[in-house]
Amino acid sequence: MSPASGCFPYDYRLETMPSEHFADGGYLLSSVDGFYPFKRKYKHMGNYPHHIQIIADSNTWIEGNAVAQLETTARLPHMLCVAGMPDLHAGRGYLVGAAFFSDRHFYPALIGNDIGCGMAFWQTDLRAAKLKPAKLAKQLGNIDTPLDKDEQVDLLGNTVDMRQFSDGLAVGTIGGGNHFAELQTVDTVYRADLLPPDFDENHLQLLVHSGSRGLGQQILQRHIAAFGHQGLAEEGEAAAAYLAEHQTALEFASLNRRLIAARMLDRWHSEGTCLLDVHHNFLEQTEIDGTTGWLHRKGATPTDKGLVMIPGSRGDYSYLVRPAEDCQISLNTLAHGAGRKWQRGECKGRLSHKYTADSLRQTEFGSVVVCQDKALIFEEAPQAYKSIDSVIAAMKNAGLIKLVARFKPVLTYKTGGECGA
Hints:
Elements lengths: L7 E2 L9 E3 L4 E4 L7 E5 L9 E5 L5 E3 H11 L4 E11 L6 E7 L2 E2 L1 H4 L6 E10 L5 H8 L8 H8 L23 E10 L13 E8 L4 H13 L4 E2 L3 H31 L4 E8 L1 E8 L2 E8 L1 E3 L5 E4 L6 E6 L9 E3 L8 H8 L16 E4 L2 H6 L8 H10 L3 E15 L6
Helix pairs in contact: 5-6
């Protein structure tokens, strides 16, 4: 994998890396000559060269633990290259906001337990000029209850057969953590010529962020029970079995996002058209720079699916972007959002002296956040996330994206109950 012009080495010792070190364990990366990918070559391990690439600029804050996890992942057997996006942050064992390219083996644990998590973006017929967030929230009510088979058919008709998926899944629900569904309105159009054909800036858009709602967890648990965190050889029976289950989870996640959008639109007596639906937790076999291998994405958006949405926190903008034609420097991957700045367990302690739960249910945009889980409302506060503008700027300066449009939130749904798990 060849470096882009203007890259400079990402040094093994963080102390000598061009950066400013913060007391909270993060790094504000600096740039050289206006180009911001970082690269480090590892010593050969076996027959495989190891590389790290980080897409960042002078305003990109990256947690020190995330960089350490990226280095650990790069040392896995058969790993050819890893790439951290500007939203890179540490996860439970494996980091989020990164892509990993391996040879002849792949690692299900890198994809994690939410196979198929992604973004679906819908055009609605709700007029932007008449929006009243509080009224829309009241009409929506609580959508945390799973849909039964009859309700699924009522919403999508008989075109989709959900019976192929395991019983007990929370079908038609969003989930907890950073998952959400959000009505948005256009703030800025940068390239009207690149907008989707059915796009209408005079009406609201709906962004749904959700995953495989327990199915991916079941798949990962079976894999871990049998193989631990070891990778699988691509030609083995175990690999074939995992890939089949992985595909089922991808299909379920997409269908579930359709159901979420459909039930929301139904509550508003509205209709909509899906403009895009793109996974950001998945595995695929692909070719990069002449090498065929396995590309793992965890919280990382593919660049070969057309236009993609990159949302900020629930009190920040979201961006519709077009990936550049050549994104091999980032393993054909973009950020999937703003990326966490604080660990979940520390958010309430950092914020509760200044904010109440009720105050966090309305943003600086005047938008409404529906979240009745008192812990989650602090964990998902805008302050707990990086600025989306810094993430977008890093990718734009690296030549990875073109801006198409920017959106601001109107109504964000997290959970109408005490737990959105």
